[in-house]
Amino acid sequence: MTTRTGPLSGCTIAITAHRRAEDLIASFERRGAKVLHAPTLQIVPVADDHALIEATRRVIANPPDDVVVTTAVGFRGWIEAADTAGLAAELLGTLEQSRILARGPKARGAIRAAGLVEHWSARSETTAEVVDWLRAQGVSGRKIVVQLHGLSDPALQDALRSVGASVRGLEVYRWGPAPDPALVERMVSQVCAGTVDAVVHTSAPGAQAMLDAAALTGQYDELVSSLRTGRVLNACVGPVTAGPFVTLGMEPLVPDRYRLGALIRSVTDRLTDDNARSIETSYGQLVIRGGAAVLDGVVLPLGPGPRAVLAALVAAGGDVVSRPELLAVLPGAEDVHAVEVTVNRLRTAVGRPELVRTVVRRGYRLAVEPAGVAS
């Protein structure tokens, strides 16, 4: 048992991000959460790739009319690679003569940090808005360089080519496979089992990779069900990241501002406001978490069986839950004797045996009357 030290004590948060994951981990841990970091993809830089340097030389030799900057990390990586090859001054001079378009504020910040000024920035932070703006301006005959964001984006390039533009994609980094596939499989299993409270995503490719990993391990339907029903909170930093889930008819949590800080606050608020998983008992407030419970500020680690029984009792709000009903929520159990064993384990784990009361011939219920009042 440990005393609660933050609003997310007792919670387990799964994070699928590779880049900037440290910021998320530190923030959630400061709030008391346990973090399961399972990157579903990893960023593979190509700063030493001969192809990137040659592409940079071609940009300098044949200056573009427009340059689309999609990500801050990609633009910074491009400038750094050019600097390593002794081409930074020439590249920056070339870009100064081009119309620079930013996909959002982070890309805009990287442009300005390089001493350049963007001509326009997308408010929605989406590639689609960039394409719409360029189409509206008219791009027939214009030369456009698009800094790609981890994945080849033929749809973007084809959309611009279809209206007469000459388009070149520039790949600064790409998405590689998960650094630890076994860890991703474990994370998927925990989401399916509901032993994590939330899973947090910061990129659409990373979100899709989790779905793909579930399909490869035969857990796709379970994963989708766990996220769709809200058993596990599914949180995305913005609408683009949420895309793979929205396509499946889900409504993941997306903050009003598409920033990590707003994402962290939204997840914290949602988990701490989840009244369906909390109840006031004779021994203080009881809150159910993914792999634990919190009773009167004390975190109580629980195994899957005791947690499932306690969650059912909390959902009943102090009413009696029959042994057959509890048997139905116990993973792998086949007879009511397993219910009695699990209830005993639960009473031992919480350190308050009277919290779970036996109702003769009927089942069990939580003690919700004021302390000292007989049931």
Description of the structure:
With 375 residues, the chain is of the alpha/beta class. The protein has three domains: 2-40 and 178-273, 3-Layer(aba) Sandwich (Rossmann fold), CATH 3.40.50; 44-175, Rossmann fold; 276-366, Orthogonal Bundle (Arc Repressor Mutant, subunit A). The protein is built from 15 helices and 18 strands. The chain has helices at 21-30, 50-61, 72-84, 88-96, 105-113, 127-137, 154-161, 181-193, 204-216, 220-228, 239-246, 260-272, 304-315, 323-329, 336-350, and strands spanning 2-3, 12-15, 34-37, 41-45, 66-69, 99-102, 120-121, 143-147, 166-170, 173-177, 198-201, 233-236, 278-281, 284-288, 292-295, 298-301, 356-359, 363-366. The strands form five sheets. Strands 1-16-15-14-13 form a five-stranded antiparallel sheet, with helices on one face. A five-stranded parallel sheet has the order 7-6-5-8-9, sandwiched between helices. Strands 3-2-11-12 form a four-stranded parallel sheet, sandwiched between helices. A hairpin with a 3-residue loop joins strand 17 (356-359) and strand 18 (363-366). Helix 8 crosses helix 10 (220-228), helix 9 packs across helix 10 (220-228) and helix 14 packs across helix 15 (336-350). The longest helix is centred in the C-terminal third of the chain and has 15 residues, at 336-350. The model has no long low-confidence stretch (mean pLDDT 91).
